[in-house]
Amino acid sequence: MKQINVDVAVIGGGTAGLGAYRAAKAHTPKVVMIEGGPYGTTCARVGCMPSKLLIAAAESVHQIEKAPGFGVHPQGEIRINGREVMDRVKRERDRFVGFVLEGVDEIPAEDKIQGYAKFIDDHTLVVDDHTEIKADRIVIATGSRPAYPAVWNELGDRLIINDDVFEWDDLPDSVAVFGPGVIGLELGQALHRLGVQVKVFGHGGKVGPLTDPEVMRYATKAFQQEFYLDPNVRIESMKRPDGQDKVEIQFINHDDELETFNASYVLAATGRRPNVDKIGLENTSAELDERGVPTADHYTLQTSASHIFIAGDASNQIPLLHEAADQARIAGDNAGRFPDIRAGLRRSSISAVFSDPQIAMVGETYNQLTKRLGQCGCFATGEVSFENQGRSRVMLRNKGVLHVYAEQGTGRFLGAEMMGPNAEHLAHLLAWAHQSQMTISEMLDMPFYHPVIEEGVRTALRDVNARLHLGPEMIKHCLDCGPGC
């Protein structure tokens, strides 16, 4: 077995692994990156990029269907060619993956070790059966994988995860989506708009990442008006009939009646779990949480074993690409400069669901605030509905609601949850304000053009300012702001 000694070993070659490798390399030349699967990152191969390609195709169909609302009537029947849809998805997906691979190719061959790593002790890794690595410091960046009940494996090739969707050559007739979270909502709605018969099932009543009950109720109703969604379904049976390429699902529908749905595929979108269960963490001194994930300092990404760091989806913090990139820089930098540990910049949280209307969250969530401040009534909520908001109505995109949260006394902006048009852009404005620790009054001093969707943000800010007793009562029709604001 080959034996090597390095200053830093990075386990994983995805977004977090690549970032950690580069950050550590800035401090020492003796860095290796270990990867057992294909390079290319989850985002580029099976995550954010291919899903947005599918969503873009679905949005183009939806715009045609909405055209009569403007008095524009497309001629003839809308024809969706599933093979052409999936061909573009895969071609563009491969292009994005290619960009990542170009970066990987620039890494010296001796720094890349192919295989799966496992801890033998705090400083020793064995890669498959060919290489033993003695490392002074180690960064765990092993990513995550879909999680679903093991019994579902009995469905065979009719059970799929989001990775499988982007290998289709054509669109199927029907799909049952289990899990109305980010992945389930995005893919479920997109497939529905592309002509696939879709039913989305959940357990526990949650929709997307939302925690604000009113925003969640609005989102549930909005989605249910377009496709079948039951966030707390009662499944009576789910089986694959012998010799048939379908799954028979019996469930209690919204009318409290037993219904049967025959699906070409069951898409498991029930969550993800960190890939840390097969890397031999039991052979280290690192403390693990209840899910078997090493606990780590939020600002340094250092575990209880001082020379071991963790980053990205494996850290069980926020499984988003921009978070993985930030964590990678912090963990890799600290592993490279060890023992001179530095606290890294952790930005204000921001997340988005690319459904229609979009869902977005910024800063502290409603649940976090109610746990921290709710008992004393120390925060207030401002609201705006986009149903009568001027610019939203002009574009026939007038669905949604925005809640903003602010601290009593100081007036500081604390966070927001929303469903609405252009929520991805509204969330960025609010995230910048949150990271700048702005007050509601300071945010209201910022410029707002007319007519734009962002004026809805101002309405919500004025509402919460009045509830903080820091500003005037809300004016129902503010002509100073222009019509429809």
UniProtKB/TrEMBL annotation:
Top-level EC class: oxidoreductase
Cofactor note: Binds 1 FAD per subunit.
Pfam families xref list: Pyr_redox_2, Pyr_redox_dim
Disulfide bonds: C43-C48
Alphabetized UniProt keyword annotations: FAD, Flavoprotein, NAD, Nucleotide-binding, Oxidoreductase
EC id: 1.8.1.4
InterPro entries associated with the record: FAD/NAD-bd_sf (IPR036188), FAD/NAD-binding_dom (IPR023753), FAD/NAD-linked_Rdtase_dimer_sf (IPR016156), Mn/Fe_SOD_N_sf (IPR036324), Pyr_nuc-diS_OxRdtase (IPR001100), Pyr_nucl-diS_OxRdtase_dimer (IPR004099)
Name of the protein this chain belongs to: Dihydrolipoyl dehydrogenase
Organism: Vibrio quintilis
Gene name of the encoded protein: lpd
